[in-house]
Backbone:
């Protein structure tokens, strides 16, 4: 096999993958729409691509759709920033004071296994039915895993590199900033990628519990008035939002 | 004048279940030349270096160092930081020990130029060969201008051919820069070809079995020394020591 052939084979493969991905999407939408048109499925329950499109357009024209999207994105970004900073900070402290980690370990495990949604009602009572509660729930949902991932990354830093710095009389701060954090750059970046998805989950959970606006609010409202078109539209919008946000983080982390 | 005097050094390691004696009452001097410490794997050789370099302060006995003795340490692997380029790696020790000034930077640049690494200064470690990486690691150690270098199995991560070459390379550089050396190795031939004095340790707990002064009529690089009759003689002597 020549080099040229090899390259063209790779290119061909890539094209096949992309085309198949697009084909699946189109096929899914088309079948859904056809089944709806022929009344094989009940569009009252399943909605249809056409109805979803109309609903989204109406939301845009009459119900300030962009405002709802913005609210959700704002909540996600705020909780993402809080989670990320806080988890790096806490992981750093735990790494530097191992005794503290050992003491807190059972409580971290306990808190991690607790479904954070269960705390929702308490948080709403304590903080109030507002955006702060939603952000708090979102941070609680994403932070523990984030701390644990970063902490484990720190723990797995090459001991030889740390020893090397110690031979130059490095203190804890030197080791942290010159070795532990830089060598865990990829761990931190992949944690950020997970965080953005986790925060979206948290925000929607929060919006389901208490909200006056946002995509979660639209979905909840849609289900309460049994408007499945609205529910489906919300889900589609969420997919788009999460896909776009994930790719933005991916793009930033690659640079 | 000895650079370091080691008197009645003992060292134990503890675990919940037991106490393991690693070093048992050893005494020797380190002079301003090349000292080799050999012994079976896990006999506590590296512990001695950790103690000399002040990494480990938990021991019995006495270590007397010449006043203001500066110690450089070279580890088992090059331990270059992959996210730093060659220049940044070379000055890492200076940066950490807070002695990054114009004079020292000039010295590092001088070393990089002298040992053929200056043109690679903006490259990253993964773009260099194993031998070159080892040279960078050596320059990083030399940058802090130590009086004595501690080498802990410095070539053990390299394949045999590279190992011989790098050994020569490192030998020449250290001789050129006029430093004293303590090298720890389990390779008898490496110790004999590299050092002026070889200390043979027993199995754990390590005590001193024998100390040999290595003399060659025409002292040369390690690879050349390996070809001499004296090398063979010392090898047989030390080998029988270890076998006993």
Residues:
């Amino acid at each position: 096999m020549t080099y040229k052939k090899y390259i063209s084979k790779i290119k061909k493969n890539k094209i096949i993958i992309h085309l198949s991905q697009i084909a699946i999407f189109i096929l899914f939408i088309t079948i859904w729409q056809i089944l709806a048109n022929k009344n094989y499925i009940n569009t009252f329950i399943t909605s249809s691509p056409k109805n979803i499109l109309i609903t989204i357009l109406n939301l845009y024209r009459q119900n300030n759709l962009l405002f709802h999207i913005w609210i959700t994105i704002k909540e996600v970004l705020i909780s993402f920033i809080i989670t990320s900073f806080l988890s790096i900070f806490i992981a750093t402290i735990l790494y530097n004071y191992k005794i503290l980690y050992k003491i807190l370990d059972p409580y971290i495990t306990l808190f991690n296994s607790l479904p954070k949604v269960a705390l929702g009602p308490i948080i709403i009572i304590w903080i109030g039915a507002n955006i702060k509660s939603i952000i708090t729930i979102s941070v609680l949902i994403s932070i523990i895993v984030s701390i644990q991932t970063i902490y484990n990354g720190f723990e797995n830093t090459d001991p030889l590199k740390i020893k090397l710095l110690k031979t130059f009389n490095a203190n804890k701060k030197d080791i942290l900033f010159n070795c532990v954090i830089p060598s865990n750059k990829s761990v931190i970046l992949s944690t950020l990628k997970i965080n953005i998805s986790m925060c979206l989950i948290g925000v929607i959970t929060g919006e389901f519990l208490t909200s006056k606006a946002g995509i979660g609010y639209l979905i909840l409202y849609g289900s309460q008035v049994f408007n499945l078109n609205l529910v489906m539209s919300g889900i589609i919008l969420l997919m788009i939002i999460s896909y776009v946000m994930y790719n933005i983080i991916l793009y930033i982390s690659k640079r | 004048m000895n650079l370091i005097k080691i008197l009645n050094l003992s060292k134990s390691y503890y675990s919940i279940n037991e106490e393991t004696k690693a070093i048992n009452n050893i005494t020797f001097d380190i002079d301003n030349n090349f000292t080799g410490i050999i012994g079976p794997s896990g006999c506590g050789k590296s512990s001695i270096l950790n103690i000399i370099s002040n990494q480990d302060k938990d021991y019995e006995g006495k270590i007397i160092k010449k006043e203001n003795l500066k110690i450089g340490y070279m580890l088992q692997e090059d331990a270059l930081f992959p996210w730093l380029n060659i220049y940044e790696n070379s000055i890492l020790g200076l940066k950490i020990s807070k002695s990054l000034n114009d004079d020292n930077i000039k010295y590092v640049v001088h070393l990089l130029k002298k040992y053929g690494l200056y043109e690679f200064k903006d490259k990253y470690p993964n773009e260099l060969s194993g031998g070159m990486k080892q040279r960078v690691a050596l320059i990083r150690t030399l940058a802090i201008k130590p009086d004595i270098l501690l080498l802990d199995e410095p070539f053990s991560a390299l394949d045999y051919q590279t190992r011989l070459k790098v050994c020569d390379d490192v030998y020449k550089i250290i001789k050129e820069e006029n430093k004293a050396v303590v090298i720890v190795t389990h390779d008898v031939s490496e110790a004999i070809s590299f050092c002026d004095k070889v200390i043979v340790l027993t199995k754990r707990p390590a005590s001193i079995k024998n100390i040999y002064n290595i003399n060659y009529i025409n002292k040369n690089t390690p690879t050349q020394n390996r070809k001499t009759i004296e090398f063979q003689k010392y090898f047989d002597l030390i080998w029988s020591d270890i076998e006993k």
Summary: Residues 47-254 of chain A form a domain with the MetI-like fold fold (CATH 1.10.3720.10). The interface with chain B takes residues 158, 160-161, 163-170, 174, 178-179, 182-183, 185 of chain A (CB under 8 Å). Residues 102 and 238 of chain A are 39 Å apart (CA to CA).
